[in-house]
Amino acid sequence: MPRIRLHEQPCYEFTYGISVQARDISSTGHLAHHAIVQITHEARVNMLHVLGLHELDLGDGKTSVITGDVVVTFKGEAFMFDTLCVQSHIGEISPDGFRAFHRIARAGEPIALAEAGLIGYDYGTHTIVPIPETFNRALAQHRQGFQGTCRS
Question: What is the pTM assigned to this prediction?
């Protein structure tokens, strides 16, 4: 069966820790696929918070984001009470959107890779709108102060 192949990013500028809860477990006893979407959403909210932004305001008072697509590939299992590290990267920025890349790991071992396509959106007019320059400036400022390590 052909599979979607996501690749790790050379650099993840954001890190978010989360514990696997009972609500995250499938009937087979491990981390469920729906929980990966929820965990990456929490990581995205945290990532935007670090930038001084949020999903309903990318810094201009009117531009929100909506999700255009989500892709997840599993690399391993996680279980209840495991502590996960979600590393995130914003890339592929276009005039009206960007991609959020996530690497979810337990004790350094990858559990899943996920990507989400996020689109600038104005809920007042229900239209796709450009990503505001305030978002790009906040991201550039964060990257200037980033002290993490990146793979070569």
Answer: 0.93
Q: What are 44's two structure tokens?
A: 């995205």
Compute mean pLDDT per 10 residues along the chain, 152 residues long, and list them.
Answer: 88 95 93 95 96 96 96 95 96 96 96 97 97 97 82 58
Residue 21 identity (one-letter amino acid): Q
Q: How many helices and strands in the chain, by DSSP H and E?
A: 2, 6
Euclidean distance between CA atoms 68 and 65, whole angstroms: 9
- Whole-number Cα distances in Å, 21 to 46, 102, 103, 114, 128: 18, 19, 19, 19, 35
Helix %, strand %, coil % of the chain (to 5): 20, 40, 40
CB neighbours (10 Å) of residue 13?
Answer: 21
- Tell me the domains of the chain and their CATH numbers: 14-144 (3.10.129.10)
Q: How far is CA 97 from CA 20, 59, 108, 117, in A?
A: 30, 14, 30, 7
**Lookup result for tokens 């209840």:** 80
Cβ(11)–Cβ(151) under 8 Å? yes
